[in-house]
Structure formats: C-alpha cells, structure tokens
Amino acid sequence: MLHKRKEIYGVNKFAEKPSRGFLVYVWEALQDTTLMILAFCALVSLLVGIMTEGWPKGAHDGLGIVASILLVVFVTATSDYKQSLQFKDLQKEKKKITVQATRDGFRQKLSIYELLPGDIVHISIGDLVPADGLFVSGFSVLINESSSCKMLVTTVGMRTQWGKLMAVLKEKWSMH
C-alpha cells in the first residue's frame, strides 16, 4: 500500500538545481580582470622573448607567468568548489526535519521526505507545515502560533502549492 502511494503521488521533495561542476569554477576564476591582464602580459612576453632569444630560451618568462596564472586559477577554483560542496552538505543537514505522523494507525516519527498523501501529521508549536493538507482537528490554530493540530496530507513535493510556485519562479528566472 505504501509503495503504491509513493508510485501514484511521488515523494515529498522539490526539484533542485543540479550542482555546478569544477570546470564552472575554473571558468569563473579565469574571469578575474587581474588574471586577464597577466595573461595579456604573458602573451606579450612570450612573443617578445621568442622573437629576441628564440625558442625555448625566450619563452621562459612568458611560460612562468602562464604557470602562475594557472596555479592561481586552480587554487581559487578548488577553494570555491570545496566551499560549494560544504554548503550543499550544510543544506542537507538543515533539511533533515522530522515530524510526528500517524500512518497505518500507528503514530511515528517520519522524515518530511517520507510523508505521503493519507498520512496524518501532528503539528506542534514551532513546526513548519511540511506538505499541503486538510485541517482535521485542533484548537487555537493561528498562523505561526499553533497550539497543536492534526492535518491530513493531500499533496507532496512539486505538486504542492509551494512546489508549483517554485517551478514558476524557476521558469521565470531561466527566461532572463
């Protein structure tokens, strides 16, 4: 029964942007104005050196500048890439949210990503609403200040109102 619900309704996850690869960070590092000036200087140095002293002796200074540029680019790109991976790991940890839910007649602690339509979620003070649903029971329920209530999950993941909004926003941003 649980597998069938997952198959029909999907999982409670939103579509995420694919992570950027290492080469994107290399490209961004190459966009630095100082490095562009250095690259121009390296080219001039190579041309002048080869014309005056010949190959390979005249290329030493120019190749030294190129090596310095490549070192700076790869160190910068590696640092930025590692930071992005650490940020992604932090985001995953931040999203590890559990809620109390009743499934198949048993109250249990579930990850918000395991929720499916038909589950009853017990919302307490400070909880975020993890999916779209119908108010089943509760008292003194106010936005951001609920005492406690029960909600029947009706929609999860990209089919929720939040998921639809995120898809529209993503589409609008990709057009610009």
TrEMBL record:
Keyword Ubl conjugation: no
Transmembrane domains' residue ranges: 21-50, 62-81
GO cellular component: plasma membrane
Keywords (A to Z) from UniProt: Magnesium, Membrane, Transmembrane, Transmembrane helix
Record-annotated Cation-transporting P-type ATPase N-terminal domain positions: 4-45
Location of the P-type ATPase A domain: 96-147
SUPFAM superfamilies for this protein: Calcium ATPase, transduction domain A, Calcium ATPase, transmembrane domain M
GO molecular function, one term: P-type calcium transporter activity
Pfam families assigned: Cation_ATPase_N, E1-E2_ATPase
PANTHER family, A to Z: CALCIUM-TRANSPORTING ATPASE 1, CATION TRANSPORTING ATPASE
Stated name of the protein: Uncharacterized protein
Organism annotation: Malus baccata (Siberian crab apple)
Organism classification: Eukaryota, Viridiplantae, Streptophyta, Embryophyta, Tracheophyta
